[in-house]
Amino acid sequence: MNEGCGGQREAYQMLLDNIPGGVQQHLNDEAYTLVEVNQGFLELFGYTKQELQEQFENQYMQMIHPEDRQSVVKQVAEQLLLKKKSCAGIQGVLPGWKL
Hints:
This protein is mainly alpha-helical. 44% of the residues lie in helices and 7% in strands. The chain is built from five helices and two strands. It has helices spanning 6-17, 39-45, 49-56, 60-63, 69-81; strands at 24-26, 34-37. A two-stranded antiparallel sheet has the order 1-2.
């Protein structure tokens, strides 16, 4: 995930980590490659950044329950057409769960 440098990067991460709830930023590619996540996102799903890399290769799509993937893709596409930030309620894969 994004490993920037300097004070701006630290200030940005501090802001993200103090937002209540989970926040993630992903690329608009097929895998929805994760660019950034906040501490709330990690706590919500129960993973560390290292575990996201090791278990999901930083691919948000792999975290989305297979039955929800098509719906999430549709929601994101609709939001992009409206030029809005995407907000999709999804069921993710939590530690210990098997698909």
